[in-house]
């Protein structure tokens, strides 16, 4: 069953929407701080969290959550991976990770839209499209910092295997979740 973006958050009260956005921002923050040993570099769980939030919240709540997360980071809160050690606020956002952060917002919109408008099985391909957007924006921005010939070594090769594992995990969790649970989270359940 698909729902429209207007009913996804529209049936929730404003306090319920704020609570879901705040919960999503907290989950994104925790996922950015958790490092899982992986080869060739440790990885965070941020991409998995982003995909699960977008797929469960839908377009409207998902993008509101990502905008809230980016606003918290811009305000100087240490919500991003590597903060505060690698800087905070706009200085961090304008650094080497800036394009990936923009890609996070685009990916959230892609997956959230798919969650609202497409059959449930379209979520995994939508997550691949979202991941492609993250890398497209991330690498385009990183290109101004990376030495010639090092762009993929700095911003793609060490991370792609882990990210493919993360979106697969996110897809399995969301596709395996009971429809009633997703409806309750989104606020589309009759008792939400």
Task: Kindly describe this structure.
With 192 residues, the chain is an all-alpha fold. It contains nine helices and two strands, in the order H-H-E-E-H-H-H-H-H-H-H. It has a two-stranded antiparallel ribbon with strand order 1-2. Helix 2 crosses helix 3, helix 3 packs across helix 5 and helix 3 runs parallel beside helix 9. The two termini are 17 Å apart. The N terminus is likely disordered.
Give the end-to-end Cα distance, rounded to a whole number of Å: 17 Å
**Shape call:** globular
The residue-averaged pLDDT reads 91
- Sketch the major β-sheet: 2 strands, antiparallel
Subunit arrangement of the protein: single chain
* Number of DSSP helical runs: 9
What letter string, H or E per element, gives the SSE order?
A: HHEEHHHHHHH
In short:
Helix content is 69%, strand content 2%. The protein is mostly helical and 192 residues long.
Give the key terms.
192 residues, single chain
List the helices and strands and how they pair.
Layout: H1 5-10, H2 14-33, E1 35-36, E2 43-44, H3 46-74, H4 89-93, H5 98-117, H6 123-142, H7 151-155, H8 157-176, H9 179-186
Antiparallel strand pairs: 1-2
């Amino acid at each position: 069953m698909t729902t429209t973006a207007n009913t996804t958050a529209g049936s929730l009260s404003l306090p319920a929407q704020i609570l879901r956005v705040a919960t999503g921002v907290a989950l994104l923050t925790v996922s950015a701080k958790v490092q899982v040993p992986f080869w060739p570099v440790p990885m965070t769980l941020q991409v998995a969290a982003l995909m699960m939030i977008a797929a469960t919240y839908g377009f409207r709540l998902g993008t509101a959550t990502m905008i809230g997360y980016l606003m918290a980071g811009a305000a100087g809160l240490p919500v991003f991976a590597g903060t505060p050690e690698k800087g905070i606020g706009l200085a961090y956002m304008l650094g080497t990770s800036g394009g990936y952060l923009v890609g996070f917002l685009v990916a959230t919109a892609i997956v959230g839209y798919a969650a609202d408008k497409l059959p449930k099985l379209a979520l995994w391909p939508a997550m691949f499209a979202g991941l492609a957007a993250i890398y497209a924006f991330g690498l385009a921005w990183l290109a101004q910092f990376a030495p010639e010939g090092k762009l993929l070594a700095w911003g793609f090769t060490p991370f792609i295997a882990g990210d493919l594992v993360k979106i697969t995990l996110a897809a399995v969790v969301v596709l395996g979740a009971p429809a009633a649970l997703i409806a309750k989270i989104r606020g589309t359940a009759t008792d939400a």
